[in-house]
Amino acid sequence: MRALGIIGLLIVLFVGFTVYSRSASQATGGASPQETIDVTAIRQRLLTIARTERQYQAQHGNFATLQELMAADLLPEGTEQRGYTFTAEIVGAGFIITATPTDPAKKDWPTLSINEALSVTER
């Protein structure tokens, strides 16, 4: 009787672990933990750059290229981070900042971009 209880407990634990593992991999889109960490850091960096663009625009009346932000000491970390390269495009009265994976090990990772409304998109 006691052996059946232990076997039942093991079956329940196995089923629970399987369900948990599947839901965890679906929550991250099947991404590796390192990819999840790096993409989260890149999202934060995009938000920081976008806020810097807004600050620059408030002071100068227009948005800036990343080189102009660096020249104004508003972008001291540069245009590369965690295997991604950042580029900025001034579009009319707004901007689009794009983070593209340039590290060969990250070639299948998403490209992220943000606009003046602080809307981050991933493709």
Topology:
Elements: H1 2-27, H2 33-60, H3 66-71, E1 80-81, E2 84-91, E3 94-101, E4 112-115, E5 120-122
Antiparallel strand pairs: 1-2, 2-3, 3-4, 4-5
Question: What is the number of helical segments per DSSP (H or I, 4+ residues)?
Answer: 3
Strand order of the largest sheet: 1-2-3-4-5
Q: Mind describing the biggest β-sheet?
A: 5 strands, antiparallel
DSSP strand content = 15-25%
Shape: elongated
Structural class: alpha+beta
Spans of at least 5 consecutive residues whose pLDDT stays below 50 are: none
Describe this structure in words.
With 123 residues, the protein is α+β, with helices and mostly antiparallel strands. The chain folds into 2 domains: 1-30; 32-122. Helix content is 49%, strand content 20%. It is built from 3 helices and 5 strands, in the order H-H-H-E-E-E-E-E. It has a 5-stranded antiparallel beta sheet with strand order 1-2-3-4-5, covered by helices on one side. Strand 2 and strand 3 form a beta hairpin. The longest helix is centred in the middle third of the chain and has 28 residues, at 33-60. The mean pLDDT is 87.
Characteristics:
single chain, 123 residues, alpha+beta, 2 domains, five-stranded antiparallel sheet, 20% strand
Question: What's a concise summary of this model?
Answer:
The chain has 123 residues and is an alpha+beta fold. It contains three helices and five strands.
